[in-house]
Design goal:
- By secondary structure, this protein is mainly beta.
- The protein folds into three domains: about 80 residues, Ubiquitin-like (UB roll), CATH 3.10.20; about 70 residues; about 70 residues.
- It contains four helices and 21 strands.
- The strands form six sheets. Strands 2-1-7-4-5 form a five-stranded mixed β-sheet, covered by helices on one side. Strands 9-8-14-11-12 form a five-stranded mixed β-sheet, covered by helices on one side.
- The termini are far apart.
């Protein structure tokens, strides 16, 4: 019975029901209006989501195309639109209502641990981009941005000057490689050249200098060559 009443025409009522869409007033002949009907009144496109304004501290309500809103409730119902952008996280599609998103926000949206590594997929032959928690990514660029995560193992093994070492961070600095190579013995009379192989996509191979750091992966190889300072 209630469903039939929702579609009932109020044309015989003394006055029409009012609603506001993006600060513009409209009148409606039925008690209920669907999200699709609200959009049709203002020719809204598919790249916006419809919201019903709710008094604070409550959150505004997202209204789907088939959702019905009762216009006969006390007061005038106010609707507004939000533009959204698509992104994917670990192959799942999500909406975001701002131009920029941080690595932390991507992790929270995708239910990813804040400790895990996050990457932005980049078209080959370029390397995927590592995204820190505070890094901002522009979602308004052409195409859909694709993010994926990798769990950081509790402990990995790296090879430093032919010796296997345990490592529990996702990066390692030049100074940390030298310390592992020298057994944490500091020697001011030596300078070092550090090279590495078999690294992750961000830094598969190369050379490090003072102050540099690289991302690590299991069985990554480092060579620290010492020379006396002149």
């Amino acid at each position: 019975m209630e469903d039939n009443q929702k579609g009932a025409d109020l044309s015989t009522a003394k006055k029409l029901l009012s609603l506001v869409i993006e600060n513009k007033k409209f009148e409606w002949r039925k008690q209920y209006i669907s999200g699709r009907e609200v959009k049709a009144l203002v020719n809204a496109g598919d790249d916006v989501d419809l919201f019903l304004s709710i008094v604070k501290p409550w959150e505004d309500e997202l209204i789907g195309d088939d959702d019905l809103v009762d216009l006969a409730r006390p007061g005038i119902e106010r609707f507004f639109f939000k533009n959204f952008l698509w992104l994917t996280i670990n192959d799942k599609k999500f909406k975001w209502y701002e131009q920029y998103v941080t690595g932390k926000e991507v992790k929270l949206l995708g239910n990813i641990s804040l400790e895990d590594d996050l990457f932005l997929s980049i078209q080959k032959p370029w390397n995927d981009e590592h995204i820190d928690n505070e890094t901002k990514v522009d979602l308004a660029r052409p195409g859909i941005e694709h993010f994926f995560s990798k769990e950081i193992p509790a402990e990995i093994k790296i090879i430093v000057n032919g010796r296997e070492r345990s490592w529990s961070k996702n990066t390692i600095s030049f100074e940390e490689v030298v310390a592992l190579a020298e057994g944490n013995v500091h020697n001011n009379n030596k300078a070092y050249t550090v090279t590495y192989l078999k690294g992750p996509k961000q830094n598969p191979q190369g050379e490090m200098g003072k102050g540099d750091f690289v991302y690590v992966t299991n069985k990554m190889i480092f060579n620290a060559t010492a020379t006396d300072k002149s």
